[in-house]
# Entry
Amino acid sequence: MKIRSISIRSIALPAGLAAAITGVWITAAQAQEIQYGRGYFFPALIPSYFDKEHFLEDISMERCELNNGYQSWCYKLKVKSNPVENGPYCPETINDIGGVYPYDGATNPGLRVLKRDLFEDMEADGYDIVDDDGNIRFIMIKTGEIPNLDPDLSYCIEVEPDNELQLSYMIPVFSWHAQESTPMDDASKIVGLSLIGMPINGLPPSVANGIPGAPTGVGSMPALDACGGHINEGFYHSHIFPETINEIYAKHHIGEVRCEAVYPKGSGDLVAYAMDGYPIYTNLDMNGATPTNLDECNGHFGPTIHYPTGMYHYHSSSAEDVNIPRCLKGVLAKQQLIVE
# Structure
């Protein structure tokens, strides 16, 4: 099924209809002011699908500017900075077990547990991450701090949490395709927000190429916990969908770690909403089959359990361990995250 092109300058919705579509009550004046540009647009995100346990306030609507220059309305989703128990991350010694990381060095690349065999492979690849006493070179970074590190050494990195932070994510009320997709090729890019209010970010930094802008050389890693997330700038976010990561462990016969802080999701389940408002599902469709018509962002238009008449949506990747979409197709808010 192809998305039909719709050309609209503005839509004036009655307040009651807007509430029925979005699940958020707005005034008649707000409804009359909602402006949309031309292109593919859908009332995609449904607020009632979120579990509000980790939200700091009810989901609301605010005026926002989109990254294509249009003035519109966005959902404001205000969540806790560290919603779930997290860690462990870096092991103390080569004999201990920590979290995980997608290793891209020469020897045995892939999603690896932070334990002896990984660190021995890293040493063989020329990354000096183990000292002479068998201790893992480790650094704990405070938010806003720039540590003084030896660029010739490699480190396992953690960042201190700040539980006082309040995070507000801005997602367009109506979703439509942008002229160009937005790559999720950097850890600072925001893919979306899970249904429990946990942010999902882009690709984690490369071990082989080094962390962009960091005072470390190659071979360092900001460790992930068993749920595929870590703390940066004081708040927790994931780089792998935690709802599906245990399936990845099973695929690779990894038994030392398991994500227990986030309830797993099965075939065809809704796991998150992307920052463009489109839904993100697990790797299979609602019939339990692998989708065959996915685009470069791992998305397609079609029916789901939640959108039986059809909706553009993403799937987690079946081929990649870091199973997030590699790009987003829709228009984004110009300011996607407000940190207080």
